[in-house]
Structure formats: C-alpha cells, structure tokens
C-alpha cells in the first residue's frame, strides 16, 4: 500500500521534478560561468577580493529558485488531490489518516531535499579548488536560507491547498507569505548565521500544519 502511494506521488511530480532539476542546474551553471570568467580574466585573487570586500557571492541569481521549486512542487502534487477528489479516496485506504498524509508530504520534502542537496554539493565541489574554506563557507551559508525558504514555500502551499475553505486558504497564503519574507529581509552575506538553525527547525515543524487542514477536510468543513 505504501509503495502504491509513493508511486502515485511520483507519477504526479516526476515532470516537475525533472524541470526543477534542469532549472536549478541551469542557474548553477550560469553562476559558476560568471565565477570562471572572473578567474580567467582577473585571477582567483580578484575573486577572493570581491568575496571579502563586497556582499556578492556570485550566486544571487539563484535567490528565488529554491522557493519557486518548493511552491510549484506542492501545487503539482496536491492540487490534483483536491480538484479530482483523490484525497477523499486516499483517506479511505486501510491506513491511518496521518500516515497517509505523512507519506505524501514526506515524499514531497524528500524530492526537494534531493534537489537542494545535490545542487549544494555541486557548488561546493566547484568552489573547493578555487576558494579557501572560509570563503566557501561564506558562500554556502549565504545561500542556505534560500533553500530553507524552498521547504517553507512547500509547507505553506500544502497547508493552503489542503484546506477545504477558501477563506482559510487565503489566510494560510498570507501567513505563508509573511513567514517566507523573513528569509529575504537581508541581502548581506551570512546575515542569517545566528538564526538559520531555528528557522530550519520552525520550517520543518510547519510541514505538520497540513495535518490540520486534512483533519478539517475529513470533518466536512466547508
């Protein structure tokens, strides 16, 4: 039964997953070509100087890409469940309600984490021969809130889509927009170092909000 649910989720999201992978790869390649151009024209020393003296990591173009990946994945995964009454059928399966929803949400978050971790690893491997560890850490920590924002976007879109009433959906969207804005308040390098762990913990906890929406849906709230 669990394998069937996972396969269903993969069928719904496979094309979006591949599209998100291509987009992330394209933006990553673009940013790294910019770095390569600076190194080839001015040398690695000039690159180090830019990273140390300016709030420029050369990956600013990727700022909103993880967020849009999370939002689109949630829409592709969960909108068909509501529009085609699939969720109602799923909740009648011989599995506990929370387990079914946990599998669905866990699948979506796992896809996002797979995309983000691979992208993160590619960036690290590219920068490793060029920059000192301290500068690599500066770049990676500056980018980390953007990836956490992608998971937050997924969590709040799931929370809104699974909600059975339009009024509460609007409130959920507004709450999500307010929370996600936190990740983009500052463009300074490493601005979120002191709070990123807490933001990550809160974001993962917010994934559980969808269980409340599903409970209201099952109770017939309209």
Care to describe what's here?
The chain has 222 residues and is mostly helical. It has helices at residues 2-42, 44-53, 65-83, 86-90, 97-127, 133-161, 166-181, 196-206, 209-218. The longest helix is centred in the first third of the chain and has 41 residues, at 2-42. It starts with a helix and ends with a helix. The mean pLDDT is 87.
Q: What's the arrangement of secondary structure elements?
A:
Layout: H1 2-42, H2 44-53, H3 65-83, H4 86-90, H5 97-127, H6 133-161, H7 166-181, H8 196-206, H9 209-218
Run of helices and strands? HHHHHHHHH
Distance between the termini: 30 Å
Regarding quaternary structure, what we see is: single chain
The radius of gyration over CA amounts to 20 Å
* Average of per-residue pLDDT values: 87
Task: Flag low-confidence runs.
Answer: none
Silhouette = elongated
Number of helices: 9
**Helix/strand/pairing class, anyone?**
mainly alpha
Number of strand segments: 0
Classify the helix fraction into a percent range.
over 70%
In percent terms, what proportion of residues is strand?
Answer: under 5%
The major pleated sheet works out as: none
